[in-house]
Amino acid sequence: MLAAALAATGADIERLPVVDDDESAHRAALEHGLTADVLVTSGGVSVGPHDLVRSIEAELGVEEVFWRVAIRPGKPVSFGVRDATLRLRASWQSGVVARRV
User: What is the pTM of this model?
Assistant: First the structure.
């Protein structure tokens, strides 16, 4: 839905494939994505040592502006910049809300 909304405004969209859960795959995808004006990622977000995206972004020079915004569903959320690239990361789950049963 986000890609369609952005495309409707005239943005050129490049959707990257799902990335394996390993450091080299994440690094390659992020290096490629950071060549764009805006990079939006979802999923693969964690907290602590399992958060490959956050640590790799730091190594690639992404300046983290904020992290762990208290919204539901979906935290951590982060926003960062590197040169002219804006970076948004979220753990959105397509509008699915988890509830206790």
Answer: 0.73
